[in-house]
Amino acid sequence: MTTTDDSTSKEAPLTLDQPAPRVLSFWDQSAFWANLGVSLFAFSGAYTVLAPNNEGAPGISIAAGIVAMIVGTAVGGLMLGLAAVPGARTGQPAMVLLRGLFGARLSYLPTVLNIAQLIGWGTFELVVIGDAAEELFHGGPHWLYVIAAGVITTVLTIWPLGSVRILRRFVTVGVVAALLWFYVQFFRAGLPDLTTNPGPEGNGPFGVDWGLFWIATDAALAVSVSWVPVAADYTRHSRSTATAFTAAGGAYGLTQVIGYVLGLFALALATGGGGQYGPFLHVTLGALFFFIFVIREADQSFANVYSTAVSIQNLAPRVDRRLLSIGLGVLITVVALGLNMENYFGFLGLIGSVFVPLLGVLVADFFLRAKGRWNTGADAPSRWGMVGAWLIGLVVYQLINPGDAGVWTDFWVRAQGWAHFTVQPWMSASLLSFLAAAVVAATIGRLVPTRDTQR
């Protein structure tokens, strides 16, 4: 793809029919994904790994949780890297790529689902920032913190590629310093026995219930997978496919493990008071370094809002992404002012069940059948077979791990009974649904001729 050197070519295009400049270096992308891997979610949501059934049971130990986090993140990082490649190779954003997988019109279904989950993630991020700021400053107007985070998020989305470069130049160093500082302080404070679970009832030995291990792994993997349907929105600006894969899969996976393990350590050190971020604020200079985490969290909401805008452009190609970003920034801010985090794990489970098998279909078709050549134009023909493969993967995921999503979960629990299906401890919903969707997609790709060619 040919680009010019003028200033406008160095920023993301405003509409879908404009070419994407290839201006992000390996270090730009690595810093971006590494920062996304360190999130306040890792601290506030660490218990979802230790008690993945969300039923107040002892769950698994901290040591088992660390193993689950490493395994889940390694697999999730590989998936994220694979999702990054098509964007770098074609220059197309994530939802536009799905025109080649499902067809132009059928791509609208995953696009709408992606818009919904990104709005949810962006809203959650503002809630987390507001909660963390309130704890950091010992109170204050929660609404003001949320609005401030919403304004920062919206400003970053106006110049997305410039924001990525700012992360590399200024933010990453502070985040690395904060991580090192807290690790040193936590080790100096003395960690408790990692073979116990620090929850209200969690006092069993390592591996108290290995039947929950793969559920915990899926919980960790779901965090990585949440970025799969947006990866191409950023790697489409990569200078090469190899750097896109390495930066997305490697840098993100590394820092997610570091961040979540730090969150598990903080959970182990937590006492009855002090709030969920108490262990960070009670160490020497803790408030200063935790402030870096709070400010940096805006890159998470920025990424979600920008990708939401780009996803909407798959439905409305000529709408200016800046107008979309401003509208979305206002929307998530308003919603965040009245939202809580009570069903965080259920939200993650639903994300995994939708986008893990979708990635399986994409990998099988893009890499094995199409060899990287898809028709992503507005005339891309519908491919119902690929939709069927996706749905089969979703069914496999839900039968193994129905999650915790109210009526939706109740239906799949009953479906287990109808199918006389018993979940085994070794079953991973993410891995098996990915493989099922990929195998079905590869089989359909061989048996059913397609009319798609690269556009």
Q: What would you note in describing this structure?
A:
The chain is an all-alpha fold and 455 residues long. It has a single domain, classed as Hydantoin permease (Orthogonal Bundle). Helix content is 67%, strand content 0%. It has 19 helices and no strands. Helix 6 crosses helix 7 and helix 7 crosses helix 14. The N terminus is likely disordered.
Please outline what is shown here.
The chain is an all-alpha fold.
Indicate the topology.
Layout: H1 26-37, H2 40-44, H3 47-50, H4 62-90, H5 94-102, H6 108-136, H7 142-158, H8 160-189, H9 213-225, H10 231-235, H11 241-269, H12 278-281, H13 286-296, H14 298-315, H15 321-336, H16 344-369, H17 384-400, H18 407-418, H19 429-447
Membrane topology: Multi-pass membrane protein
Subcellular location: Membrane
InterPro entries: CodB (IPR030191), Pur-cyt_permease (IPR001248)
Could you give me the name of the CATH homologous superfamily?
A: Hydantoin permease
**CATH T-level fold name:** Hydantoin permease
How do the helices and strands follow one another from N- to C-terminus? HHHHHHHHHHHHHHHHHHH
Low-confidence stretches: 1-8, 200-208
CATH class: Mainly Alpha
Number of strands: 0
Figure out the total of helices: 19
Main beta-sheet annotation: none
Q: Classify the helix fraction into a percent range.
A: 55-70%
The overall pLDDT average reads 85
- Relative strand content: under 5%
Q: Radius of gyration over alpha carbons?
A: 21 Å
CATH architecture: Orthogonal Bundle
Number of domains: 1
SSE class: mainly alpha
Straight-line N-to-C gap: 13 Å
Query: What is the molecular shape?
Result: globular
